[in-house]
Amino acid sequence: MMDKRVPDVPAALADVQDGAMVLIGGFGESGSPIELIHGLIDQGARGLTVVSNNTGNGEVGLAALIKAGRVAKMVCSYPRSSNSKVFPELYRKGEIELELVPQGTLAERIRAGGAGVPAFYTPTGAGTVLAEGKETRDFDGRTYVMERAIRADFALVRAELGDRFGNLTFNKAGRNFGPVMCMAAKTAIAQVRRFVPAGEIDPEHVVTPGIFVGRVVEVPEPAQESALIEQGVSYP
């Protein structure tokens, strides 16, 4: 029988290669797969292109991955916040590349990648520097910008429950980008707070079906939560 559970974080991340494109879930730190991110630091992959809503908070999670020099390029909608120190400093030094994408466009680019749609048109960004070098077309008297879908090598997401088939449920707002990122990656890796027996998750309550998930690792008490809490960062 199919079993997508892996014994630990290192096993889940063992084949992430240098130069990979990695989708990382989370809105701020809500739903951020902190343990997987720190596992990726330990794993050692470099030159990564990371797609995420923001660039991390404090010096934990995504911010720690960036600080470790593992990220060559960030694709995100919110590169700076009151708790984001690492990325702005490296960006000003020219040590990391940024592709800025409006938040709704970012979500749709990822969703389109998962749905097999290569590109789409959106009015967001038309007439601004974000549209430079991109194809535009007029529809019904309004200018639209063509945006390419995002497909990635890996997705790292955090879920609440998972079973051996890879079916996932999420904790409220912690869902955010997780479901579409799982669809848009060749290999989606989920850290879950708890494994449950197959069949315990009501099919009507499954948010991300296991067909979109490659590996699931149980992290019942994330060690990095206390570090975030000490920094005043919410980590639901």
TrEMBL record:
Cited InterPro entries: 3-oxoacid_CoA-transf_A (IPR012792), CoA_trans_fam_I (IPR004165), CoA_transf_BS (IPR004163), NagB/RpiA_transferase-like (IPR037171)
A GO term, aspect molecular function:
CoA-transferase activity
Keyword set, alphabetical order: Transferase
Alphabetized Gene3D superfamilies for the sequence? Glutaconate Coenzyme A-transferase (3.40.1080.10)
Provide an example Pfam family for this protein. CoA_trans
Looking up SUPFAM superfamilies in the UniProt record yields:
NagB/RpiA/CoA transferase-like
Residue stretches spanning the membrane: none
Q: Name the NCBIfam families on file.
A: pcaI_scoA_fam (TIGR02429)
Q: Which family does it belong to?
A: Belongs to the 3-oxoacid CoA-transferase subunit A family.
**What's this protein's name?**
3-oxoadipate CoA-transferase, alpha subunit
User: What's the source species for this entry?
Assistant: Tistlia consotensis USBA 355
